[in-house]
């Protein structure tokens, strides 16, 4: 096993990229980051380089002639940027780790989806990244074309934990902290599946030394926790005087409140969205993926929010969580129905 390595991180100042840098430094890796310099500096100990990777000439100039044992890339926009990076690095990086998404599977995603399921059509040279599934799949193709079998593609599911700038777990923590009656989407025993960004980072960093490559659904086992356990934990860590009011899926649908976006993390237990918490992850867990207990993720995320505050969202993919008026309307409908 490779005890330490020379690592290049494309990104590295927020969410998964930040987790990768901090985990790598803790391992003793020598870390170089390449960012635009718009999201702050990387962790102390990393060597920071700055360029807009969509400017291929500037990107190449900043990379210079250096080489690394591995690169980890978190890019989520136009695939052509990943294609350019892979072409520039193909002869001087031993292993390419790319953070992809289970969104690459064709919709509707089947329950129990594994890595053999059909994926969306995509172009590795596409210059637009508005179609998130196609952008991620195009990047996968770009990396595979240049690196062949020296690739780890982590098709992550829901990513939580400290540094999350999408607003899912932060929404529930901050909402719970305000107290009062909290509209909790039921049933409480609804199984959840997600991954802490730090566990994703740790597994990807171990992959080169462990000889792990290929395409993997990278998320916890289904039922790693439940919606009830998660929200009760947010109540505990915030010390909130909150009352969880469990609203059933039928009332949520009647109110026109959207799963996943208005109600982050949650999807109903039936219907097309149900598969978002039921991916087959046997391959990744067989290759060493380990997911920490849910209470640790919740407590550490709250501690981070208390220290740094809610970050500016880096993407609009998650939409906006429900506001006070929407929650009040949902609770009123629940009360009127006597459910």
Q: Label the overall shape.
A: globular
* CATH class annotation of the domain at 6-159 and 195-218: Alpha Beta
Name the CATH superfamily assignment of the domain at 6-159 and 195-218: NAD(P)-binding Rossmann-like Domain
Distance between the termini: 56 Å
CATH fold annotation of the domain at 6-159 and 195-218: Rossmann fold
Specify the CATH architecture of the domain at 6-159 and 195-218.
3-Layer(aba) Sandwich
The radius of gyration computed from the alpha-carbon positions, rounded to a whole number of angstroms, is 20 Å
N to C succession of SSEs: EHEEHEHEHEEHEEEHEEHEHEEHHH
Q: Which percent range describes the beta-strand content? A: 15-25%
Number of strands: 15
Q: What structural category do the secondary elements indicate?
A: alpha/beta
What average pLDDT do the residues reach?
95
> Number of helix segments?
11
Question: Which residues sit in consecutive blocks of at least 5 with pLDDT less than 50?
Answer: none
Strand order of the largest sheet: 3-2-1-4-5-6-11
Instruction: Give the proportion of residues in helices.
Output: 25-40%
Oligomer: single chain
Q: Sheet bearing the most strands, described?
A: 7 strands, parallel
């Amino acid at each position: 096993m490779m005890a330490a390595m020379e690592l290049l991180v494309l990104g590295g100042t927020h969410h998964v990229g930040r987790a990768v840098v901090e985990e790598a430094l803790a391992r003793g890796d020598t870390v170089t980051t390449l960012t635009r310099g718009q999201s702050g500096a990387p962790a102390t100990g990393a060597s920071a380089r700055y360029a807009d990777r969509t400017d291929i000439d500037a990107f190449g100039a900043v990379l210079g002639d250096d080489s690394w044992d591995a690169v980890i890339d978190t890019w989520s926009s136009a695939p052509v940027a990943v294609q350019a990076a892979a072409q520039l690095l193909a002869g001087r990086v031993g292993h390419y780790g790319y953070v992809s998404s289970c969104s690459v599977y064709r919709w509707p995603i089947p329950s129990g989806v594994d890595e053999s399921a059909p994926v969306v059509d995509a172009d590795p040279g596409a210059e637009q990244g508005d179609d998130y599934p196609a952008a991620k799949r195009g990047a996968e193709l770009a990396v595979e074309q240049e690196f062949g079998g020296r690739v780890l593609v982590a098709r992550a599911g829901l990513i939580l934990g400290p540094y999350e700038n999408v607003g899912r777990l932060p929404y529930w923590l901050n909402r719970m902290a305000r107290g009062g009656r909290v509209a909790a989407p039921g049933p409480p025993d609804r199984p959840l599946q997600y991954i802490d960004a730090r566990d994703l980072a740790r597994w990807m960093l171990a992959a080169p030394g462990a000889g792990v490559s290929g395409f993997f659904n990278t998320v916890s086992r289904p039922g790693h926790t439940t919606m009830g356990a998660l929200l009760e934990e947010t109540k505990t860590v915030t010390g909130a005087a909150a009352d969880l009011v469990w609203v059933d899926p039928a009332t949520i649908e009647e109110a026109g409140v959207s799963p996943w976006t208005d109600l982050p993390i949650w999807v109903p237990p039936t219907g097309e969205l149900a598969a978002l918490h039921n991916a087959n992850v046997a391959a990744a867990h067989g290759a060493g993926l380990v997911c920490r207990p849910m209470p640790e993720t919740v407590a550490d995320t709250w501690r981070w929010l208390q220290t740094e505050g809610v970050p500016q969202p880096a993407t609009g993919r998650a939409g906006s969580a429900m506001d006070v008026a929407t929650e009040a309307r949902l609770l009123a409908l629940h009360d009127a129905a006597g459910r």
